[in-house]
Design brief:
Largest sheet: 7 strands, parallel
Strand content: 5-15%
Oligomer: single chain
Mean pLDDT: 82
Radius of gyration: 37 Å
Strand order of the largest sheet: 15-16-14-17-18-13-19
Number of strands: 25
Helix content: 40-55%
Length: 1021
Amino acid sequence: MVIRGFVAPTPPEPPVALDPSQRAVLELPADASAVVLGAPGSGKTTTLIEAVAQRVLEKGWSTDELLVLAPSRATATRLRDRLALRLGVPTSGPLARTPTSFAFRITRSDDLGDPPTLLTGGEQDAFIRELLEGHAEEGSGPAWPDHLGPDVRALRTFRTELRELLMRATEYGVAPQRLAALGREHDRPEWVAAGAFAREYAAVLANTGAASLDPAELLSAAAASIRAGVDLGPLRLVLLDDAQEATESVLTLVRALADRGVAVLAFGDPDVATNGFRGGEASGLARLAPRTLTLDGVHRHGPALRAALSSVVARVGAAAAGTQRAAASRAADHPHPIAVVEAPTPARQYAAIARRLREEHLENGCAWTDMVVVVRSGSRLAEVARALTLAEVPARGSGGGRALRDDTAARTLLTIAAVALGRTELDEQVASELLLSPFGGLDRLGLRTLRLALRAEELAGGGSRASGELLVEALGDPARLATIDHRVGRSATRLAGTLQAVAALAARGGTIEELLWTAWERSRLAERWGEEALSAGVTAEEANRNLDGVLALFTSARRFVERRPEDEPRAFVDSLLDAEVPEDLLTPQAREDAVLVTTPSGVVGSEYRIVVVADVQEGVWPNLRLRGSLLGAQQLVRVVTGEADAQLDERRLVRDDELRLFALAISRARERVIVGAVVNDDEAPSVLFGLLPPDVERLDATAVRPLSLRATVGRMRRDLTAPGVPAPVRSAAASGLALLAREQVPGAAPEQWGGLLPVSTDAPLWDLDDPEVRVPVSPSSIDRLEEAPLHWFVDRVAGDSGSTALTLGNVLHWALETSEAPDADSLWARVQERWGELAFESPWVAEREQRLARRMVEAMAAYLTDTTASGNRFVSAEQSFELEIDRAVVRGKIDRVEQAADGRVVIIDLKTGQAKKADGDAQLEAYQAAYASGVVEGLADGHAPGGAALLFVKKGTKSRPYTLAVQPPFGDEGLEAFKERITRAARLIAAAEFEGLLELDEFRPGNEKFRWHIVGSVTGD
């Protein structure tokens, strides 16, 4: 009901039935503080919600009198929604906040100083990096120990540890001067240097104008404001959910509230803490209040899952608690509550997981959103989500795990802005990246076509510039592409126009939001990606990811303009392109019906019917690498807290944290846990598998058939068409395909199958009945034609386009033809003249090919030196010839003709590939036939046939860097045999049908220009 814009609150949800241990929490006095310990699934959050509902609905408290704190925005949002539904009353603000949000509210309401600006992790990392780089350039800054030299300080890992050290110092009230003093006292020179750095860092932040604080500083400032008497309003009670995730800063804030008379109820379980690597104090939970209550029943999962979880946490240090471990399960077990997947490859593991998830969805009615896949490292999220999507399981990553510069769409927009602003030079690499991006619209074939077109125009105009230089020129001037009337030219013109428009707007003083919006609007991608995002499969996933990246970029740009209105757009581009820490974005993430793929910290405060813990590999989980070994942030904490002399096993502490992560992951399941790993000769499952019960279900991962429509269609088509299939199976397959075809399932209808269209023509390529017809025969293709006519035909039709694109072999042939001296340096100089015309996929490929080319040039020089010493005279190079033999016309060019002192004529064919025998080589036979016909010019009198040879310069013999494969000179019989060979070749070329091998791997494996596969005929029976 809506009255004058007021939305009437919905009625409150009914109360939840609580067990006696939960009711004991609600029976606490109104002003009592307590810690509530509970095992996973014991109802801690439910008890918290009911405690709030009791005070508001039964005792008449105002919602302003209490506050709920949750460790992250995601958990706070979920908790806020549950509270709103349970209470059904209007509130003046969100009931659930993060500690940082609450601290921000406190500091902004504090009249004792200016409101602060919260530094994001990326901004903090950027400030630290700039300071360190400045010190390195100027040779100034703190005196870091020798093992922390400039190369180490340039690493992101060092900056991360430095941030952690500074935050721990802030949390425990260690000023820069004291940090340096503690370093001298405990022989930690890195702390001395960090103290000096902290002083300079604070001075730099102070000069930014606003009070810029990182999260630890913000929380400490809020605690100080509370102790200084800031107005807390009617606040009487703070309820802290998942308190095991709290850092010392959060604990300090809560203690400050308690000192002001605010009651504190802290709910948590130290056995499932995930924040230990980031300063979390799991043991601090038990010290928050003098009274401790324990929830003694587990309602989420049955005894089997409870026993497995107990087996894990029993090996974890108690963290000043432990009574919660005695909780017993009060729920029933579901069938097969624990399953394992041991697969030979990661792909098999994900396929087995995907099949089980589809079974749960299709057969048991489990919603995609009620299933989750947990992996140890955030770097695996994208790969796992993509593998599930390819198996037709909708999946989404937890987001926020990478910097905007690593997102394809966002990075391209940033690059366009960077080029327009002059930050990034438009060179060949940048031009290629932009053209290959969605904003350029070209694939690699299209880019190659554009390069060839630009190069052809250059050569026609008498120029000699390389295609890369022409590409940069074209993107710098849209008019340059007007003569290329082709799709690739139009796409490049649009991108060039965008670069020009953004640059013009930047020159007029446009903001970064305006620059990015101009590039985005001109791309015309919004409508296309929007339609694709509404579809399904990999295309939809990619479109959603691109749209999320663009939205996140515009959110970040708006925030930059709001917070730093005086800064130039280039400052924003610099901050993102140089960032190595992901932005903590406020952009809403899509909540589509999909399986969540996340890390353990992403499932804090949530539960699912099905939990999959994937990639549980030895060396991956548990990861026993010591953290903070460079700067010792945790050692600083122990020094400050008086535990420096305690005998602690650092590796065991790390192990405990890893076990807590695993315990948290499996504890989220209501019905079933699936644990997966790769098992082969190189990889082994983690020791964590040994903590699972022995009688678990084992999923078969050796031959996983996807449980999807696509796989079903493929199986039915195979059953219908494969020989030897029983008639009932064929009939069932036909009926099933007919049903799927009526439902318009792709691939089910026979008209969508390959091989069923009528033959377009059965006419021969060349009509030999016409006496005027002559069949062109290329000497270089005769061997391939004879071996497999079908492969020759595909090579000719779909392979080499016969373009003017240069290859390395072309350059070497040209160098051999045009060099005026036989030494290696002269030949290499000729190669270098045209090296810029070659296009390589990456710089390292270019370097490798250049080294190979140099070796081949040295081999060519060695051959020229040897042949000159033997008395051979150079006659000609690249001499063209044409022979008419019966109905064939043989055309070609002879690489090199030499004449020995005794008059013998030797024909040389330069080869840059692998060596082979020359006997029967059709190309050499054609050259010898050309000599025999008298077309070779420049020969001295008294010449005689001396045969031919293949000169291989890629690999030599023991005595010389090249290999020479000789073909004996022709006699009359050899010449006649060659003519018969050409006649047969002409008949093969002129045919209407071509035979070939069924499997490409049987024919020159690994030596193909393209990948293809020949299948047998398909019938519609």
